[in-house]
Amino acid sequence: MKERILNGWTLTRVLYLVMGSYIVVQSVLDHQWIGILLGGYFAAMGLFAFGCAAGNCGVNYSAGRKSQGAGDFEEVVFEEVKAK
To answer: How distant is the alpha carbon of residue 51 from its chain centre?
Structure first.
């Protein structure tokens, strides 16, 4: 746990921690108790490097992607229906 907190800091993690802490402080001052949970979640994401703050939200487009060439298509046939 100590390694996770002390290493691997990125701008994203710092922003999550700062903004989450700001939300917690403002929620306490305004007596908006649900905001403490929301801010605490974002601050924890930044502090403990889980979720998007750890860079796990990116999509790897190169893995398993099929190239679509000129011959890769499916023919669609439409039928006309006459109204009465």
So the answer is: 7
Where is 9: in which H helix or E strand? none
pLDDT at 69 > cutoff 60: no
Domain boundaries, the chain: 2-54
Q: Record the tokens describing residue 33, joined without a space.
A: 């108790």
DSSP annotation string for 31-83: T-HHHHHHHHHHHHHHHHT-GGGGTTT---SSTTPPP--TT------------
pLDDT tens digits, 4-20: 777 878 898 899 999 99
- pTM, to two decimals: 0.62
**In a 10 Å sphere around its CB, with 0-12 CB exposed, 13-18 middle and 19+ buried, how is residue 56 labelled?**
exposed
